Amino acid sequence: MPDEFTETEVIGLGKNIGSSIKGVFIGILLFIAGVIILWVNEGRVNVGKVSEKLSVPLNAEKIDMSYNGKFVSATGTFKSEGEIGDPEYINPGPYAVLHRKVEMYAWVEHKSTKTKKKIGGKTERVTTYRYTREWTSSPPSSSSFRHPEGHENPQLTVKPASFYAHSAKIGAYTIDLKSVRLPSPQTISVTEDMLIDGAEGYVEGGYIFNGEGTLNKPVVGDIRISYSAIPNTFSPATIFGKVEGSSIVPYLYKGKKKIYRLFRGTRDEAVATMKTEYKIISWLLRLVGFFLIWTGLSALFGPIFALLDILPFLGNITRTVVNIITFIVALILSIIIILVSMIAHNLIALLVTIVVVIGIFILFFHRKKKKAIKASA
After folding, report:
1. Dihedral angle at the C-alpha atoms of 366, 368, 369, 373, nearest 10 degrees?
2. Residue 58 and residue 204 in one domain
3. pLDDT (tens digit per residue) in 143-192
4. Is the same domain home to 64 and 38?
5. Which runs of E-coded beta strand occur in the chain?
6. Which of 123, 131, 180, 183 has a Cα-to-Cα distance from 325 of 20 to 30 A?
């Protein structure tokens, strides 16, 4: 069977206009979604700043009951009890947390579409379906393919899994490995001596391989298993949370935002990491919000584009001009929404803004009244 298929569809003017009218409603929803994202984003809790300002530094090597109930950043040596492994595949090792990743060599569908405007308002749509064999942790069902014949995927029989040590501590304080947000795990290269007796598959290239082919020349349905882990001891380690007796548990900032994170490194390094994460996510959400607003505004002109596409060059010129205009409008709107949201989510800034606006309002009417008095005199 071929692994690439091309389908051509010609869409008439009426259908294009109908689709563009539907696009107007979608555009309105995208615009609203963009506004909401920009507004909510500026109200997100900056966990780095909160943790730096409110958490009390704590030497975790011995329990101090005077910290009970307080939001702390505890620094010390991280240790977990015993060793853990994967009971189906690998022997216990020096890990606090062990993640099993499963990939199957499977068919994957790639779809690409190109459109070409025709005189009279018609559109020629050329869709190409390309099928490639790839390692994937989420093998698609062949029933979802446009052309499933000859591209059948078997079901993935081995599932991913995570394994946790029974207990773990930072210094003298107990923490909950399944509840705390952990640092990024380290990749493990599997070796022969790690494999348990009776495990399905064999070790090749740092993976556990199971199938009819080889790691370098796999066939569809072959499986490879890899692992990542957090070691059962490292120092320094820092955790942010609330002290509860001899344990450190999640802290709820203003009763809503959960702060419970474990880091490799010192308190200062952990705070710097959280601040950087906040900045990156903030700018990503700002870009997403702006893009949704811009796309939504452009979609409002869809019916006009569809009509002008009767002469493709005229539709293309109009589309370019409108996209430039809506880009500028979306940018200005996004900046305004961000600034207003910043003020609204900051009580001091909100009060200052209200006072300034009231002051300007009073000054304006005072001058107007003085001019009226002079004019009447």
Report:
1. 140
2. yes
3. 999 999 999 999 999 999 999 999 999 999 999 999 999 999 999 999 99
4. no
5. 4-11, 56-59, 71-80, 84-86, 90-93, 95-117, 123-136, 161-164, 168-170, 173-175, 186-188, 202-204, 207-210, 223-231, 233-244, 247-249, 251-253, 257-259, 261-264
6. 123
Domain shared by 184 and 306, yes or no: no
Residue pair 108/141 in contact by the 8 Å Cβ criterion = no
Residue 66 lies in a domain: yes
* C-alpha closest to that of 37 among 347, 283, 316: 283
- Report the amino acid identity of residue 92: P
Which pLDDT tens digit goes with each residue over 80-122? 998 999 999 999 999 999 999 999 999 999 999 999 988 888 8
**Which tens digit of pLDDT belongs to each residue from 57-75?**
998 988 989 999 999 999 9
With a threshold of 0.85, does the pTM exceed it? no
- Domain annotation covers residue 121: no
Identify whether the C-beta of residue 74 lies closer than 8 Å to the C-beta of residue 297. Answer: no
pLDDT tier, 356 (very low <50, low <70, confident <90, very high otherwise): low
Domain assignment present for 187:
yes
Is the same domain home to 68 and 214?
yes
The rounded distance, in Å, linking the Cα atoms of 57 and 70 is 10
Complete DSSP assignment for 272-313: HHHHHHHHHHHHHHHHHHHHHHHHHHHHTTHHHHHHHTTSHH
Q: Which of 265, 296, 325 is the last residue of a domain?
A: 265
Check whether the bond before 236 is cis (ω within 30° of 0): yes
Residue 275 within any structural domain of the chain: no
Q: Are strands 207-210 and 223-231 parallel, antiparallel or unpaired?
A: antiparallel
* Residues 223 and 253 reside in one and the same domain: yes
Number of domains present in the structure of the chain: 2
Q: Are residues 297 and 240 in the same domain?
A: no
Instruction: Note down the domain range covering 247.
Output: 49-109+131-265
Task: Judge whether 117 and 313 are in contact, CB under 8 Å.
Answer: no
